[in-house]
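Limitations

Structures in this collection are predictions, not experimental determinations, and the ligand pose is part of the prediction. Treat each record accordingly. The example that follows, with iron/sulfur cluster as the small molecule, is included so readers can see exactly what is and is not provided: the inputs are given verbatim, and the output is the predicted complex.
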Amino acid sequence: MTANLLEFDLDGLAAYCEQLGEKRFRATQLFRWIHQKGASDFAQMSDLAKSLREKLAGSAEVRALQVISEQASADGTIKWLFDVGGGNAVESVFIPEDDRGTLCVSSQAGCAVGCRFCSTGHQGFSRNLSTGEIIAQLWFAEHQLRRRLQLAEGERAITNVVMMGMGEPLQNYSALVPALRMMLDDHGYGLSRRRVTVSTSGVVPMMDRLRSDCPVALAVSLHAPNDPLRDNLVPLNRKYPLHELMAACQRYLEAAPRDFITFEYCMLDGVNDTPELARELVALVRGEHSATRAIGPVSCKLNLIPFNPFPESGLIRSPRERVQAFAKVLQDAGVVTTVRKTRGDDIAAACGQLAGEVQDRTHARERMSRAPIRLQPVSSPRNPGHH
Ligand code: SAH
Ligand code: SF4
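Predicted complex:
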């Protein structure tokens, strides 16, 4: 079978080249051709011996993902839909800003966690992406954009990667880690650890493994300051409740490239956006909450994400004033808090709107439509003006 060289991090490629009787420095050259120059044709790799190029042509290829569609938003955001076979498709989103270019990368076709407010979660789960399928999103976007923006040799289009596309990256750990290593590798994309972010809904044991295997920046999708509400919004909380999650965050900080964890909090109208819950959140991160009393304060930044609606969710975005009021409670308590700008929502490329095409094997849609909706804040009365 033809090997796909996108599947190999540098050590993997060295092992592969060794099988062909080649020294490690050849693997490094080959790796640089593929990832730094975006080459996929071995004939082009002029500093490799002709005999090696011929050997490679007979046994290997650089197999990119097929692009099904590309959509550009009025704000410069670009969304690509990639075919990953078997009726599945995944999405990547490029978000340009003044001082950086961020690529949001998918890790699975679908997602098995099934968060209520997430379009991917509603699609159910089909399968994990391979290392090659994860890195192919960056390989394609980086080299495509370099050509399109006519960047000079050595200039980068993508300066930051966030694993915030479709899927729960820490439920696809073994494919994720080599892909992260390729992003960090100086012979690959050369991104610093602080510019690569893994976002997780809280797979506690894998947070610990990531801390020792490849400690990149970490974002944790919190969405609620207490277990009853979080159980409802992020079903994984029933397995790894807040006191375990917060302790894992605390441990992660020992190795993290930044001295804070980013907590993401999706603002849902009448569900998790009251001032009482903001105060409970302050208590949680300060170590003044039953879930954190044993571990003390957790150094963090809060990122409030206005909910991006999609038809099946039955949920509504919090009004701007409520988001501002929530942010103010946090800020007044000294918790660094930002409200995320919504980008690319005109092309359904905003957080949680990525749905791709998923051959659901978990019957998520059925399950979610049967499940009772109990999404009121548990610890505080609803805003009376709201009924
Ligand atoms: N599975 C990982 C990473 C992908 S989701 C995780 O959950 O962290 C990336 C981010 O988008 C998460 O913080 C997630 O909670 C948020 N998100 C999901 N659906 C959303 C929606 N409809 N509106 C706004 N943010 C959403
Ligand atoms: Fe999965 Fe993340 Fe969506 Fe939850 S928010 S369903 S963990 S992709």
